[in-house]
Amino acid sequence: MWIEKYKPKRFDEFLGNKKVIEYLRRYNWKKPLLIYGHSGVGKSVLVELIAVEFDFDLVEITDDNLENSIASSQTFSLHGKRKLIFIDDVDMIGNIKKVTDLLKKTISPTVLTTSDYNSKRLSTIKKLCEKINIRMQTSASIAKFLERICMKEGISVDRDVLKKISDNAHGDIRSAVIDLETVAKGRKKITEEDFSIIGSRDRSTDIYKVLNSILIKRNFNEALNSTWNLDLRPNDIELWIDENLPRIYKDKKDLQKAYQYLSRADIFLGRILNRQYWGFLRYTSTLMTGGVNISKEKRIQPSYFQFPRYITKMAQSRKERNIKRSIGEKLSPELHVSSKIIIRDYIPLYRILLRKGKITDEELEGKYGFNVEELEYLRSS
After folding, report:
1. Which among 113, 268, 352, 370 could disulfide-bond with 374, CB atoms 3.0 to 4.6 Å apart, if both were Cys?
2. CA–CA separation, 268 vs 282, rounded Å?
3. Tens digits of per-residue pLDDT, 6-21?
4. Domain 2-133 class?
5. How many C-beta neighbours within 10 Å does residue 6 have?
6. CATH topology of domain 139-195
7. Collapsed DSSP state (helix, strand, coil) of residue 6
C-alpha cells in the first residue's frame, strides 16, 4: 500500500510540524511524551521516526503485555540499545492505572499517543507527560505531497483532482494517500471523473472512525452507535466491513464469528430490499456493528483500512458503460444501426482497425466527434 511505501523514513521527511520536529531533536527524555492530534495526522509514524532518530529499540505496549511493561521499561534491549516504550491510543487501554504506574517507574524513553486528548481517562497521564500536539496539514501541503507520489508512480494527474482529494481528506494525510491510491489503481492518468469513485468524506462521522470503533476497539455500545451520523447506505457500510474484516481479524475463530453476524445482517438487508420494510434496519445495524465488534476476544492493534474493491470496480464499470453508450450514440446515426449493435459488434471492430493502423484518432475525432476519453477507450485492449 502507498501509505506504507511513502511513509517518511526520517524526521526531515515528516510532513509539516517543523517546530515539533526541532523540539524532538533536542528532547532530553526526562519525562514521557504524550503525542496527540486528529486521526491520520501521523502520530504513530512520528513515534517510529523518533526510534530511528535516537537509535532506540521500539517496544510497543498493548493490553496483552501491559502487565510486564514496567519490568520491560527498566532494562535495555537484547541489542544493548535503549528502549522506546510506546503505547498507541492510550485512551483505549483497559487498565489505565497500570499505564500511570508505568509512567512513574519507567527509566526508558516513553511515548504515548491519543486522538482523544480531552478524555477524562487521561487526566493523571497528562500531568506526568510532556505534551506535543501534531497539527493537521493544510490542503495545499497535502496536495503537494500527493503530487510527488504521482510523479514517482508515473501517473499523470490534474492539480484540480489533487486539490479535491486533499480537500476531501480534511487534513488527514493517511486518508488522502489511501484515496489517491484507490483512484489511481490501474490508471496512468487520473481525471476529475475518476474522483467520483471515492466520493466526499463527511468528517463529522468518518467511515474510518466507524471502522475503528467496530473492528479495532472492544466497546459494544460505541460500535452500535458509531454509524448514527454516517452518511452512507447500510449496504455500503457492509461492504466496508466485509473488505476489511479478513485484513484486521487474524484469529480464525474471531473471523468466523464476525462473518456469522455480518451474514445475518446481509439477510436482513435483503429482506428490506425485497419487502421494503425498513423496520428490519435495526437488526441489520446491530448485527453488522455490535455483533462484529463482540466477535473478537481481544482488542486488535490499529491498522489501515482499505477502500472496498467492489465499489471501485462498480464505479469503473459504470464509467466504462457510459463511454460505450456515448460511442454508440455517436456512431448509431452514421452507421444506421442501434447503439446495442454498435457496442456489441462495432467497438471491437474499431479497436482492431486502430491497432492495425487502418484508421487514425484524427479521423475518428473529425468524422464522429470522439473525445480523448473515448479514443483512449478504443485504443485500450
Report:
1. 370
2. 9
3. 888 999 889 888 999 9
4. alpha beta
5. 19
6. Helicase, Ruva Protein; domain 3 (1.10.8)
7. coil
